[in-house]
């Protein structure tokens, strides 16, 4: 369920960085949500960046997504009857898939820190976006010290843009 939100976040960030305005059509969004992302959030980010620069119109079509994703295997649709799935369940599924992709071999050492960086980066970026780049509000939202947030922004090489909220 987070995939469309992350894709939208990456589209917005690309626009803030000077790329053309793009949005996903309903078909494109459905297709992006239906695909597995074994390469994690970075794979999704790279796919969205390619779409931003290869799309012929403001609205990215399903066909354009198919061209970027190629023959990547689709994952089964995730439908929750009571909609009470927790993030930990999604993370566990992703990590099991990650280990399965190594075919019986263990991933390279340092997995713990790599996984934390991959979760922490998008979390901080989305929280900053939600608080219009206000680091004090973002730190409060995340429940961390503002200096800790600033260090993480530097360590994770996150670009912060302050803007006025339109709402």
What's the shape? globular
Read across the widest sheet, the strand sequence of neighbours is 1-2
Name of the level-1 CATH class of the largest domain: Mainly Alpha
At the third CATH level, what is the topology name of the largest domain?
Helicase, Ruva Protein, domain 3
- What is the tally of beta strands? 2
From the alpha carbons, calculate the radius of gyration and give it in angstroms.
Answer: 17 Å
Rounded mean pLDDT score? 83
Helical content (DSSP H or I, runs of 4+): 55-70%
Explain what this protein looks like in three dimensions.
The protein is mostly helical and about 170 residues long. It has two domains: about 1-75, Helicase, Ruva Protein, domain 3 (Orthogonal Bundle), CATH 1.10.8; about 110-160, Homeodomain-like (Arc Repressor Mutant, subunit A, Orthogonal Bundle), CATH 1.10.10. Helices cover about 60% and strands about 0% of the residues. The chain has eight helices and two strands. The protein has helices spanning about 1-15, 25-35, 40-55, 60-70, 85-100, 110-130, 135-140, 145-155, and strands spanning about 25, 60. A two-stranded parallel sheet has the order 1-2. Helix 1 packs across helix 2 and helix 1 packs across helix 3 (about 40-55). Mean pLDDT is about 85; it is low at about 75-85.
């Amino acid at each position: 369920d987070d995939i469309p939100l992350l894709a939208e976040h990456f589209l917005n960030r690309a626009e803030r960085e000077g790329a053309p305005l793009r949005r996903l059509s309903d078909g494109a969004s459905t297709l992006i949500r239906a695909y597995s992302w074994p390469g994690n959030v970075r794979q999704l980010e790279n796919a969205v960046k390619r779409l931003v620069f290869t799309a012929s119109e403001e609205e990215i079509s399903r066909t354009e997504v198919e061209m970027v994703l190629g023959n990547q295997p689709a994952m089964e649709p995730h439908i929750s009857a009571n909609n009470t799935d927790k993030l930990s369940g999604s993370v566990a599924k992703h990590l099991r898939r990650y280990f399965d992709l190594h075919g019986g071999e263990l991933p390279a050492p340092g997995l713990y820190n790599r996984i934390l960086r991959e979760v922490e980066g998008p979390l901080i970026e989305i929280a900053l976006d939600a608080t219009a780049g206000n680091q004090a509000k973002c730190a409060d939202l995340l429940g961390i010290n503002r200096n800790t947030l600033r260090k993480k922004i530097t360590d994770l090489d996150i670009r912060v843009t302050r803007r006025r909220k339109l709402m």
